[in-house]
Design goal:
Largest sheet of chain A: none
CATH topology of chain A: MetI-like fold
Strand content of chain A: under 5%
Number of helices of chain A: 14
Shape of chain B: globular
Largest sheet of chain B: 7 strands, mixed
Number of strands of chain A: 0
Strand content of chain B: 15-25%
Radius of gyration of chain B: 21 Å
Largest interface: A-B, 25 and 35 residues
Helix content of chain A: 55-70%
Distance between the termini of chain A: 13 Å
Number of domains of chain A: 1
Order of helices and strands of chain B: EEEHEEHEHHHHEHEHEEHHHE
Distance between the termini of chain B: 32 Å
Structural class of chain A: mainly alpha
Shape of chain A: globular
Structural class of chain B: alpha/beta
Number of helices of chain B: 11
Strand order of the largest sheet of chain B: 6-7-8-3-9-10-11
Oligomer: heterodimer
Radius of gyration of chain A: 24 Å
């Protein structure tokens, strides 16, 4: 932080004002240096990037659209990976499932659902957690007591249980004909609401530290409203731990979504996520069609693991005591 | 003398604790005139910062103003609530904090922080605010202000940062600046510069200054008048020359006698026996009586007299001839 100490006087008084491009500044930063030096971080970033990009551009990458019934041929069902189908002679990279859908394509489309639900759920949890954490940390008193006790109570239940509870209740309120369409949104709501607690706790803790600092007192003194102080002065200063939690939460949210879908309460078969694919695949494991289960499972593993490793690395990199 | 900018009358601050109500500030009264620098000295816990915080309404609950009056520019401010208080204080009072490391927001450029303050209180456009921010930075002696305005606090040294804080305190043209230990966190070599800067700027603008410090040297350097505080009470109030050269209160006298002098070959510094009482156990009568050489029965029974300018809160003040 205080790099000024080892600059010469001349530099302090008349700093080099050569404009650096933003990219250059980023490439020169400590964090990018730490990143380059960590093979785990580089590899997991590459894996995450490949997976995310191929999910986002699934329609371009995938050889077939598995959810377009007109492009499916039932005769292609149960093709082994890289083996020509006995009836049609078509070859599929990762084989096909019982409906003749290309497993590689279903994984790409499934990852879209998984990632979308994961990211959206984390965003929801983040917004909720940051808001409640800021308010309880800054305002204190009864507001804080109520918010943090609710958080404590929620923390005593396994989050997957809470997600199932919310999912069940929310589904009960959705009209039957919309259930399949709404399932994704209900899933996001359920995972988001089960995950806000850690954001709130961390933000509250950091807020308690920041609000004692004199720049916050100064802002109070110049007459800024509590809202403006929280948003402009405290929030940016408590964001770096939030970034770490968000990354690790993303891995957890993807797994939570897969768990719910695997249990049959998540993404519907019309919009399968990786979890749904694994659920469908496990039915065929003992009849020899191992690829229907294995490939989605390996994809989920790679995705969750690399996001998690990235989060771990980020936590260490942002912690000055571990450098 | 014209009407004082800040006038504090019998201010009492209370904090309810388990051990009963403590009074970190008890019946304190003083005035500060325009262009005047009042030094408030005292040991840690003497109530000097607490009195300053009471003035700007930054007392953290459960501390509260129990009684007394605070007048700013002829307007009573201690009775104002929330918004009105904030608007008034922000406009008319600037604050220089102790630690320049934490009194600037690390994630906003100093220009943003200056313009934010000005836009909150002055009716000017964003471009004007920026121009004035540059002018303010030049005035406090930041070289290359026009280029440095978009720098972040971590790109400045401690002394430079404190200059920025001073610019920040003065940019909305307040009539009163409260400087709470502005040099304590700085290198000795920069302290004098900062004090001189504060003094010059405030004198030029006719801003009243409450300079809170425990450093007698800073007081001697900068202040016009001094308020010496002890255990939440005012011990002595008067012009710097009178208080420093001929202290009337035994406590002030003890303080002055324990100041090392470069010239005198003192073998051993004077020290005041004992320590300042805890706020929960302030003795009967004059709070200084257990440590006072001059204490008589009266001091143990009757609270010390209330004082006005040029007096000491003592039943048996030292007279000028006694000055050692």
């Amino acid at each position: 932080m205080t790099d000024t100490s080892h600059k010469s006087d001349a530099e302090i008084i008349a700093p080099k004002l050569a404009e650096k491009s933003r990219l250059r500044v980023f490439l020169d930063s400590d964090i990018f240096y730490a990143f380059r030096r960590s093979p785990v971080a580089v590899v997991s970033t590459v894996v995450v990037l490949i997976l995310v990009l191929s999910a986002v551009f699934a329609p371009l990458v995938a050889p077939t659209n598995p959810f377009d019934p007109s492009s499916l041929n039932l005769m292609n069902g149960f093709s082994s990976p890289m083996q020509p189908n006995a009836f049609t002679g078509d070859t599929f990279l990762l084989g096909t499932d019982d409906q003749g859908r290309d497993v590689f394509s279903t994984i790409l489309y499934g990852m879209r659902v998984s990632l979308f639900v994961g990211v959206a759920a984390v965003l929801l949890a983040m917004v909720l957690g940051i808001t409640l954490g800021l308010i309880s940390g800054y305002v204190g008193g009864w507001t804080e007591t109520i918010i943090m006790r609710v958080a404590d109570v929620q923390l005593t239940f396994p989050s997957i249980l809470i997600a199932m509870l919310i999912f069940g209740v929310a589904k009960g309120f959705t009209p039957v004909e919309y259930r399949d369409q709404m399932a994704i949104w209900v899933l996001i709501l359920a995972i988001g609401l089960s995950d806000w607690v850690q954001f709130a706790r961390v933000v509250r803790g950091a807020t308690l530290v920041e609000k004692r600092k004199e720049y916050v007192e100064a802002a109070r003194l110049i007459g800024r409203t509590p809202f403006a102080i929280m948003l402009r002065h405290i929030l940016p200063n408590v964001l770096s731990p939030v970034l770490v939690i968000a990354t690790i939460s993303l891995a957890l949210a993807i797994i939570a979504e897969a768990t719910l879908s695997f249990l049959g309460v998540g993404a519907p078969a019309t919009q399968p996520s990786l979890g749904t694919l694994i659920r469908i695949g496990q039915g065929y494991l003992f009849s020899g069609e191992w690829w229907i289960l294995l490939f989605p499972a390996v994809t989920l593993l790679m995705l969750a693991l690399s996001v998690n490793l990235l989060g771990d690395w980020l936590r260490d990199a942002l912690n000055p005591r571990l450098r | 003398m014209s009407d004082p900018v800040l006038s504090i009358r019998n201010l009492c601050v209370e904090i309810p604790t388990r051990a009963g109500i403590v009074r970190p500030v008890d019946s304190v009264s003083y005035d500060i005139a325009a262009g005047e620098i009042l030094g408030v000295v005292g040991e840690s816990g003497a109530g000097k910062s607490m009195a300053g915080n009471a003035v700007i309404g930054l007392l953290n609950p459960p501390a509260r103003i129990a009684s007394g009056e605070i007048w700013l520019n002829g307007k009573r401010i201690d009775t104002l609530k929330g918004d009105a208080m904030r608007r008034l204080c922000g406009k008319h009072i600037g604050m220089v904090f102790q630690d320049p490391l934490t009194s600037l927001n690390p994630l906003l450029s100093i220009g943003d922080q200056l313009t934010e303050t000005m836009l909150t209180h002055l009716d000017i456009s964003r471009e004007d605010a920026r121009k004035r921010a540059i002018a303010a930075l030049e005035e406090v002696g930041i070289p290359g202000a026009a280029e440095r305005i978009d720098s972040y606090p971590h790109e400045f040294s401690g002394g430079m940062r404190q200059r920025v804080v001073i610019a920040l305190a003065l940019c909305a043209e307040p009539s009163l600046v409260i400087a709470d230990e502005p040099t304590t966190a700085l290198d000795v070599s920069v302290q004098a510069q900062i004090i001189a800067l504060l003094k010059r700027l405030c004198r030029n603008r006719g801003t009243a200054v409450m300079l809170i410090t425990h450093d007698m040297g800073v007081i001697a350097e900068a202040a016009d008048r001094v308020a010496v505080m002890y255990a939440g009470r005012l011990a002595e109030l008067g012009s710097v020359r009178d208080v420093l050269t001929a202290p009337r209160h035994p406590y002030t006298h003890g303080l002055m006698a324990s100041t090392p002098l470069a010239s005198a070959g003192q073998p051993r510094l004077h020290q005041i026996e004992g320590a300042m009482p805890r706020l929960t156990a302030i003795p009967e009568g004059c709070p200084f009586n257990p440590r006072c050489e001059r204490a008589a029965d009266k001091c143990r029974q009757a609270p010390a007299p209330r004082i006005v300018d040029g007096q000491a809160a003592c039943w048996f003040p030292r007279v000028a001839e006694e000055a050692s």
